[in-house]
């Protein structure tokens, strides 16, 4: 809680033109915002979308009033950046790219099972409806409270709870289905 207040104070000072506070605000929040964006949009897009998040945030800092924590405010901006990106991507053709497992393997080293688990989790998360994925990532991966996630996603707290519960159910069902299709089949002798 103390860190949240300190971050909010930095944002308010940055909004008043304090350049050192702006740099500290970015430095203190960049890693968590990048993780959030990476889970919603993918690792390949995370750097650019995080940069866009901060570009929008820094332009808006003079209007930030501190009614919510600066981190929650920043997550809401990141969410809108990702939504805008998805809308724009839907209107243009997607070029073929490396398989996710190759990118992950290159960036994470040689622990094959851990890489495979990350790829499976990423695919399962990608298959969730966007609202459920946002709620799940915000609360279960990023660690926001349900109330903070509700502010970020601009919906009631009960809706976040419902989306997270449904996302969990979807993930369990998908994992169960994947295990059943990959289990070896024994033929009677």
TrEMBL record:
It holds the Pfam family Sigma70_r4_2. PROSITE patterns: SIGMA70_ECF (PS01063). Residues 26-90 form the RNA polymerase sigma-70 region domain. Signal peptide: none annotated. Gene3D superfamilies: 1.10.1740.10, Winged helix-like DNA-binding domain superfamily/Winged helix DNA-binding domain (1.10.10.10). Residues 120-170 form the RNA polymerase sigma factor 70 region 4 type domain. One of its GO terms (biological process) is DNA-templated transcription initiation. Belongs to the sigma-70 factor family. ECF subfamily. This is RNA polymerase sigma factor.
């Amino acid at each position: 809680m103390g860190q949240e207040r300190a971050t909010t104070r930095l944002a308010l000072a940055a909004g008043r033109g304090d350049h050192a506070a702006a740099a500290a605000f970015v430095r203190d929040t960049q890693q968590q915002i990048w993780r959030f964006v990476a889970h919603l949009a993918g690792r390949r897009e995370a750097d650019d979308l995080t940069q866009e998040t901060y570009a929008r945030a820094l332009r808006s800092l003079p209007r930030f009033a501190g009614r919510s924590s600066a981190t929650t405010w920043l997550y809401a901006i990141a969410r809108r950046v990702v939504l805008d990106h998805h809308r724009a991507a839907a209107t243009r053709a997607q070029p073929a790219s490396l398989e996710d497992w190759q990118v992950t393997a290159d960036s994470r080293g040689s622990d094959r099972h851990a890489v495979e688990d990350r790829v499976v989790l990423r695919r399962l998360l990608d298959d969730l409806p966007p609202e459920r994925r946002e709620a799940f990532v915000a609360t279960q991966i990023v660690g926001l409270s349900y109330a903070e996630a509700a502010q970020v996603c601009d919906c009631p707290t009960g809706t976040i709870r419902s989306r997270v519960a449904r996302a969990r159910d979807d993930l369990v069902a998908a994992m169960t289905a994947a295990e059943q299709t990959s289990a070896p089949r024994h033929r009677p002798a």
